[in-house]
Design goal:
Length: 390
């Protein structure tokens, strides 16, 4: 583990808990109240005018959510953070804060499909986008347009699990006056700290590893204070996609065990990936921690660990993937990932095969989220499914 690990454990366990402020509460209390009252109109006016530093209304600030925001900013080594009602709300806020009508967003490789759908939707406001499926800085540089304002990365990329070098892209973007945004959900701040590599904005879905128990939906944006202050008054307060204090409590509980869960996800997933690589019915395994992965060396220099989600491909496209998925007994079929359970799914719906091919996604792809249970049981389940589904 890198030299951030011990500090990150402390942050997850109790940084920002402010026991002295909350009557010695062992864990941060859940402030479920929607508003905060003041003794005079003058005091309220002062608070409203300086809402970032005062509790006024939970759509903006709330002590429980603020504790989560402090921890997330500290883990990313960022100056400030704001939480949102979902990962998509956070991504939308980061993008809308960064572009105006007429601007262009350049996406590096495959992004989460709803992020792509959001970018298509933003077309109606005159915001265009394009995707560079090559992950090298030279290829991306060629696709920068005069109106490119954002380079958006997700590393590893959606379903193809290619890595992006945030150091190369942040220096390229800075030369062109472009903002960089990275979706760091997969690595979590524990395994990758993109702000230290010069990236401008980190976004997270808190619904995955950070929450970690399949019981909350949330998102976060982390960046410099000036940017987050601006985003607070615009995209958070005006669009109102705030996180809930009740879910912030679940998040804080989940984060206390994050380092220890990640260690198990990492070890289990590597064992499962190695097994899959040896199975004759598997076409390829897309796990950046395997030496066979095209970005294995890059991974060693930008990541300090691997989480539990990766993909593999079988022959036969939709039918091939569905066959294997339908034979699974222990691993559940479902969307999302990052929790204790084992989950599998295919991006192939049977009608989007050509689209997947155009996006470099093998039609026989199966995404696997390896959970916290015994890896032997997961491997045995995959083995019988792959053997029986021929
Ligand atoms: N980013 C990634 C990489 C995701 O996989 C997801 C959801 O699956 C999101 C963002 C969106 O997060 P949420 O579902 O919390 O809106």
């Amino acid at each position: 583990m890198d030299n951030h690990w011990a500090q990150d454990i402390e942050i997850c366990l109790e940084y920002g808990d402010r026991r002295e402020q909350f009557g010695g509460a062992a864990v941060p209390p859940t402030f479920g109240n929607s508003l905060f009252v003041y003794e005079s109109m003058d005091a309220l006016t002062n608070a409203v005018l300086n809402e970032q530093g005062h509790y006024v209304y939970t759509r903006g600030t709330n002590p429980t959510i603020e504790t989560a925001e402090r921890k997330l900013a500290a883990l990313e080594r960022g100056e400030a953070c704001r939480c949102f009602s979902s990962g998509m709300a956070a991504i939308a806020a980061a993008l809308l804060n960064s572009v105006e009508s007429g601007d262009h967003v350049l996406c590096v490789s495959n992004l989460y499909f709803s992020t792509m759908e959001l970018l298509k939707y933003l077309g109606k406001f005159g915001i265009s986008h394009s995707v560079c499926y090559e992950t090298g800085a030279e290829a991306v540089k060629k696709q920068i347009k005069p109106n490119t304002r954002v380079i958006f990365m997700e590393s590893p990329s959606y379903m193809t699990f290619r890595l992006t070098d945030p150091r190369a892209f942040s220096s390229l973007a800075k030369k062109h006056g472009i903002r960089t945004i990275i979706d760091n959900t997969w690595a979590t701040p524990l395994f990758q700290k993109p702000l230290l590599y010069g990236v401008d904005i980190v976004v997270h879905s808190l619904s995955k590893y950070l929450g970690g128990h399949s019981d909350l939906v949330g998102g976060a944006v982390i960046s410099k204070k000036e940017l987050i202050d601006n985003l607070f008054t615009k995209e958070l307060l005006l669009m109102g996609g705030n996180f809930s204090p009740y879910e912030a409590t679940l998040l804080l509980r989940g984060m206390r065990s994050l380092p220890f869960r990640l260690e198990t996800h990492q070890a289990n997933a590597l064992k499962v990936a190695e097994f899959l690589e040896s199975h004759p019915n598997v076409k390829k395994v897309l796990h950046p921690g395997l030496p066979s992965h095209p970005d294995y060396e890059l991974g060693k220099s930008v990541l300090s660990g691997y989480s539990g989600v990766f993909a593999f491909a079988v022959h036969g496209g939709y039918r091939g993937a569905s066959h294997v998925l339908d034979h699974l007994r222990h691993i559940k079929i479902g969307v999302s990932w990052g929790s204790f359970e084992n989950l599998a799914m295919s991006p192939n719906t049977g009608s989007n095969e050509q689209q997947l091919i155009s996006e470099n996604i093998d039609p026989g792809t199966i995404r696997l989220a390896v959970g916290l249970g015994d890896s032997g049981k997961i491997i045995a389940d995959l083995e019988q499914a792959l053997d029986n589904a021929q």
